[in-house]
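Researcher: I'd like a candidate sequence for this fold, 248 residues long. If you have to choose between options at a position, lean toward the conservative one.
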């Protein structure tokens, strides 16, 4: 009887230990699973943070580079209008057989169609040097502006542009780009690109015959920098057709 009771007690103790060990094992498994779940959750959060990509909004029309409309508005203006805006003449140079004028302010040197280099209606004097120059009549139109810096030709700051970039600007059309065979070594005119611009069309001006050409002279091939020289030109023979006067 005692032996039977002892066996029952021993079995009960063993069963209790087994149940206890099973419970402990379950608790341990639960703890490990919870820890693993927490680790996975943390890793997922970190991965989400790491894969966040910053995106740049596309440029709006207002943010895109364009042409300086203040400069554009001067093309076709009269000598009286340009003088009123830019002050007195401070320099004079003969280019392409005609007189180009530099003002106190302004974007470059200006040529006014009809100015007679030999027998003008009046002569002017550059105060600083006393040099005489043929004075344009007040109603003579500006058909050429040369020596413009690219930083003044465009309406905002830039580092470099390609001819293709310029040709994609609203209203601009790229015609040619290449090496200037007449340029000397390391000249500012080593390379060139030519364009037309809608604002200089015959429809807008009434005198260009759609023949006004914008030329950019570049030091390096395919690179237009802020100091690149820009010319806006209409040949006198084209202007003759519509403005109806000739120079002697």
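Model: Candidate sequence:
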């Amino acid at each position: 009887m005692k032996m039977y009771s002892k066996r029952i007690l021993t079995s009960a103790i063993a069963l209790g230990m087994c149940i206890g060990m099973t419970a402990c094992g379950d608790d341990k498994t639960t703890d490990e699973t919870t820890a693993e779940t927490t680790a996975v959750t943390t890793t997922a959060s970190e991965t989400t943070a790491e894969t966040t990509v910053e995106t740049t909004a596309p440029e709006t029309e207002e943010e895109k580079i364009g042409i300086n409309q203040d400069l554009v508005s001067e093309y076709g203006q009269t000598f009286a209008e340009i003088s009123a805006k830019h002050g007195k003449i401070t320099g004079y140079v003969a280019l392409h057989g005609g007189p180009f004028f530099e003002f106190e302010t302004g974007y470059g040197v200006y040529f006014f169609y009809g100015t007679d280099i030999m027998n003008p209606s009046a002569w002017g004097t550059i105060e600083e040097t006393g040099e005489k120059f043929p004075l344009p009549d007040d109603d003579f139109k500006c058909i050429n502006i040369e020596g413009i810096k690219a930083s003044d030709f465009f309406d905002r700051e830039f580092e470099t542009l390609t001819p293709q970039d310029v040709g994609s600007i609203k209203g601009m059309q790229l015609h040619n780009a290449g090496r200037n065979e007449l340029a000397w070594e390391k000249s500012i005119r080593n390379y060139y690109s030519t364009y037309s611009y809608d604002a200089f069309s015959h429809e807008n001006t009434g005198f260009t015959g759609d023949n006004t050409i914008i030329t950019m002279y570049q030091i390096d091939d395919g690179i237009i920098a802020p100091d690149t020289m820009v010319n806006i030109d209409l040949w006198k023979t084209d202007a003759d057709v519509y403005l109806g006067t000739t120079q002697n």
